[in-house]
Write a structure and sequence with these properties.
Elements: E1 6-7, E2 16-17, E3 22-25, H1 31-42, E4 46-51, H2 55-67, E5 72-76
Parallel strand pairs: 3-4, 4-5
Antiparallel strand pairs: 1-2
Helix pairs in contact: 1-2
Length: 85
């Protein structure tokens, strides 16, 4: 399996082209995780947003991803609990 990621050098364009990629962001409902989800969408990735208890925040992040023209999936799971994953 190859992982071709294009680094863009055009000013004003995303630095990395993630078009066609799927990204799982754990802790994606807030803080750094939410920003990673938005940045990945700006770079062309579809995003799965994992949350433990903040469904409303996760849905808000998913809406921002969709506004950027990308697909978003919201997934509840406590990744510290193997039975939850």
């Amino acid at each position: 399996m190859t992982h071709d990621i294009h680094i863009n050098t055009t000013p004003g364009e995303p630095d990395v082209d993630l078009t066609g990629k799927k990204l799982l962001v754990t802790g994606g409902s807030r803080g750094l995780g939410a920003e990673v989800a938005r940045m990945a969408a700006r770079c062309g990735a579809d995003v799965a947003i994992n949350y433990r208890s903040k469904v409303r925040r996760a849905e808000q992040v998913a809406e921002r991803v969709r506004e950027l023209g990308r697909e978003a999936l919201v997934v509840e799971a406590d990744i510290t609990d193997p039975d939850s994953v």
